[in-house]
Automatic annotation (TrEMBL):
Gene3D superfamilies: NAD(P)-binding Rossmann-like Domain (3.40.50.720). One of its GO terms (molecular function) is tRNA threonylcarbamoyladenosine dehydratase. InterPro entries: ThiF/MoeB/HesA (IPR045886), ThiF_NAD_FAD-bd (IPR000594), Ubiquitin-activating_enz (IPR035985). Residues 8-229 form the THIF-type NAD/FAD binding fold domain. This is tRNA A37 threonylcarbamoyladenosine dehydratase. Signal peptide: none annotated. GO terms for biological process: cyclic threonylcarbamoyladenosine biosynthetic process. It comes from Desulfonispora thiosulfatigenes DSM 11270. PANTHER family: TRNA THREONYLCARBAMOYLADENOSINE DEHYDRATASE.
Length: 241
């Protein structure tokens, strides 16, 4: 893998690459955002990954999820992603859990010490539980807010959750976190641009969110970049650019 990561090493040095090789990162949710997070982490040389997602690949995922192909429809997202990582970075140790993350099982799912936890799921109670556990265990955590019903992929910001505005999911998260005694200290990626209103049949029981190929992936890559930079520039591994 030395040749494959040669250009990465030119940027971050041997010490930086060693840091990433020894890092353990959990990615909860391997969809439009999470699949691109995983892809970027594997290509950076991260040595240990936990992938959590109970879902299978559906034809409706093809427009925005990196593992979604006509040949992978019906397969487990984490199985496909694990095989993809093996083809990218054979040295990466990948653990998968086919679980839907909830407050009841989060401590079982995240039962090891991680250098970083990345939340890329839609379920609010699950997101809150992930953040709570990360805080309790003093683990770095970053959470993705909404990326659906958007066309502007240049508006994403990574800020403390207390600084978010104009994002319905972030508003709910702020309220729920305050009730847990967490007013700040949680990194999130969000867009302050209001979502596009989607016209749907009022009789539709489940509202379908609009998505496009160039929005969720951007959020995923920005998340991965933030995590990698945090790992490289922490107090134990300072690299010089």
């Amino acid at each position: 893998m030395e040749k494959a990561l040669e250009r990465t090493t030119l940027l971050i040095g041997d010490k930086g690459l060693e840091k990433l090789t020894n890092s353990s990162i959990a990615v909860i949710g391997v969809g439009g955002v999470g699949s691109y997070v995983v892809e970027a982490l594997a290509r950076c040389g991260v040595g240990n990954l936990l992938l959590v997602d109970h879902d299978i690949i559906d034809v409706s995922n093809i427009n925005r999820q990196i593992h979604a192909l006509t040949s992978t429809i019906g397969l487990s997202k984490v199985d496909v992603m694990k095989n993809r990582i093996k083809d990218i970075n054979p040295n990466c140790k990948v653990e998968i859990k086919k679980e839907f993350c909830t407050p009841e099982n989060v401590s079982i799912i995240l039962n090891k010490k991680y250098d970083y936890i990345i939340d890329a799921i839609d379920y609010v109670k699950g997101k809150i539980a992930i953040i709570e556990l990360a805080k309790q265990k003093n683990i770095n955590v970053i959470s993705s807010m909404g990326t659906a019903n958007k066309l502007n992929n240049k508006s994403f910001e990574i800020v403390d959750v207390s600084k978010t505005h104009s994002c319905p999911l972030a508003k709910v998260m702020r309220k729920e976190l305050r009730q847990k005694g967490i007013d700040s200290g949680v990194k999130v990626i969000y867009s302050p641009i209001k979502s596009i209103k989607i016209e749907q049949n009022d009789n539709t029981k489940e509202k379908v969110l609009g998505s496009i190929s160039f929005v969720p992936p951007v959020a995923g890559l920005l998340l991965a970049g933030e995590v990698i930079n945090d790992l490289l520039f922490d107090s134990t591994c300072m690299i010089e650019i």
